[in-house]
Structure formats: structure tokens, C-alpha cells
Amino acid sequence: MVLNSPRGTSDIFGEDIKYRDFIINTAKSLFELFNYSEIITPAFEHTEVFNRSIGESTDIVKKEMYTFFDKKGRSLTLRPEGTAPVIRAVIEHKLYSENLPLKLFYVENMFRYERPQKGRMREFWQAGVEAVGTEEPFIDAEVIWLLNLFFEKLGFKNLKLLINSVGCSICRREYIDIFREFLKPVVKSLCPDCFLRYEKNPLRIFDCKINTCLETLKNSPKIYDFLCTECRQHIGKIMEFLKVIGVNFIIKENLVRGFDYYTRTIFEIISEDLESAQNALGGGGRYDKLIGQFGGPDTPSIGFAVGIDRTIVLMKQLKIKFMEGGKQSRIFIISMRDDFKHYSFKLAKFLRDNNLSCEMSFLEKSVGSQIKNAEKNKFSHVIIIGEDEIKSGIITMKNLKTFEQFKINWKKQLLEFLELFK
Ligand code: HAM
Questions:
Q1: Nearest CA to ligand 1 atom 1
Q2: Which ranges of 187-298 does DSSP label H, i.e. alpha helix?
Q3: pTM assigned to the model
């Protein structure tokens, strides 16, 4: 029997690697431009790290975690998201005592037991940032700006940036009482999941996609209208900062997100070109109480993560073109006879020593079909090694894009030779 990769996972190769490299390189250089430095955390953590932070009543903790016991009976979980592990590490290494805000980024794989479909995987990759240590609204604006800029740099044009505030523990509690009161007469018409959410975590009802629940919510009070003065001022300042730098956003008063750790600002960037259930390319928010909850000192923080796999799906769908960085020149060396391969091998060593990507032909095919092969595989240049070339040291190289040909004694004119690949 042929073995396939487990459901919801994928092998990444070929064209997708190029998209992925482009996305990750763009993320890393942009994050560094905003003064973030990289952190790598383990792929699994003590289950407690996620139970305590994401929230016991969330879908992720209730249904989607890959939890297992190791040989010593400890409960471990493959990380379903990056924020809780980063915060665990910040506390473990007391990084919060360094210069604040502490700005960290990560590019890591995540694991969620979800129903797989296009853009929704059980193993997927995220690039994310966490800015630890300040509740200043300009940091919120900077983080949201960074998220927006990232997708602009990738070449996206029609994304929507949605923002909301879920308030602080005080105004949110007051709102939840009002919301429950509103739902009380219709609670039986909610779907079974929302019926349970009504008691445990009513804000999550806003995430429901079922029509009867959506209908019920149409006239419901919105948390945004019940923010306390401080929370209202906080989101107000974020909006001012975003306007100053020309970032367009939409206030979505019933936006909620699937984690209990959020306070105040939450945001998402969505594409209406993706199916509605999976239309978020990235999202994040403020989590001012999380470090305290983990036993560290109260340290307000904010961050976001973007889905790399989902971004690739949409870039391909929208035919977004990008420049491949780094290896512009890729040289294909064709040896006309088997015993010329030593010479080709020496030439390949020289090219690779000088950071030029090359490949030698291993197939005994005609020169013509090998050139076609080189074109098909997107090589930029071809060098043909025959008897004359070896005797004279003068080799001919052909640029497959411009069809120009150059003759050069590569051993005597090393610098000029390298110059030809620029
Ligand atoms: P999230 O909204 O759960 O946030 O995930 C962020 C992004 O990861 C989503 O917008 C989506 O693009 C991608 N994603 C999520 N689940 C899947 C999946 N099953 N398959 C493919 N892509 C997926 C977080 O994870 C928070 N930790 C973000 C954050 C950082 N908040 C504060 N700091």
C-alpha cells in the first residue's frame, strides 16, 4: 500500500517553496525593519501552557489540540499557535526585564485538528510578532501597520483590515451581562454549540456561521458601544495614529477572535477572494493580562500572526507575481562527451565557489534537447563543453533569456567571466 501524508498535512515543494521563501523573506526583513528579533520555541509544550492561555472553553482547546502523553505520562501538546509559547519563554528567561518593549518574531509550524479544506490545514505555518511590555496605543497602531504593510509588500491590493476593541475586564463583564440579557428570550433558538457558549463564553457566539444564530445576532448590542472611557480613548488613539500614516481600516463592531487571552484591541486582515470560512489571512490582538496569568509581572502586550499556507493559496489564485531573490543566474553546463565531465566538474566548482548556482547535465541526450531541458527548468545560461573549449580554454555561454552568446577564456579572464552572469 502506498503511504500518503496524514490528512490535513502537505509536502511543500516546487513552485510553493518559491512562494514560501518569498513570503518568509519578506516577513523577516520587514519584522527586522521594525526592530523585531527572532525567537524559536519547541514544537510541543506542556498542555497547561495552552489550556491556561487560550481558554478552556475555546474551540482550539476543546476540539483542536494534538495532545498526547509522553513515556513518563506527562501531558504535552503540539503548539496550535505561537503566542502562548513565546510568552512562556519570555517568563521562563525573564526577558521582560530587558528593555521594553521587547519585540519578538517567529516563523513556525502550528497544529490544529480542524476539518481540512483549501487554506485550512492540520499542520500549517505562521509568521508572527509579539511586542511585549507596553499598552501605549501607538504600539497597537505600529503592529497593525506592520501587518498591513506586510501584505502590501507581497503585492496584495484588495484586502480589508478589520479592527475592534473587546474592552477591558471591567467593561467586557458589563457588556456580557447585557448581551446575555438580550439573548435570554431566544437562547433556545441558538445552535447547540452557541447554546453552550451562552453560559460559558457568550462572545464566541459572534464567530458562529449558522444562519439562525447570525439572524439572532443582527440586532444585538455590540461590545464597541459599551466600552469604558479608557478603552474608548485607547481605540480612538489607535485610529488617529493609523490615519496619520494612511492605513485604511474598518471598525467591525462585532469582530471577535477565538482566544480568551485578548483584551482591548483585536484585528484581522481578510480577503473576500477566499471562501468566507477561511478568509482571514492574519489576525491578532492585545493580551494585557496573559503574562500575569502565567505568573509573571503584569506586562501588557500585543501581536499578530499570518497564515503562510493560506497566503500562498491566495497569491496563486490572484496570480500575484514576485521577483525571486538571490539566485538570478542559474547556469546549466552541458558536456558533449562523457570524458569532458572532469572539465565541467572543475568549472562547476569555480562557479559554486563564487556563489553562482549551476547544474551539470547527467543525461546522454543531444545538445539541442539538453538546451530545451535547461530552458524548461528555468536556467538562465547554458555553457557547452566540447573538445575545442577544453583545448583553447575559450568557452561559449548562451543567455537563455536574451539569446546573446559570449566567448571567453574563463581561466584567464575570471572577473570578466563572473561579470557576465550579473
Ligand atoms: P489565528 O487567527 O488563530 O491567530 O491565526 C492567524 C492566522 O493563521 C489566520 O489568520 C490564518 O491565516 C492562519 N491559520 C489559522 N488556522 C489555520 C489553519 N488551520 N490552516 C491554515 N492556516 C491557518 C493566532 O494564532 C494568534 N496567536 C495570533 C496572535 C499573535 N495574537 C496575538 N499575537
A1: 283
A2: 192-200, 211-217, 229-244, 290-293
A3: 0.89
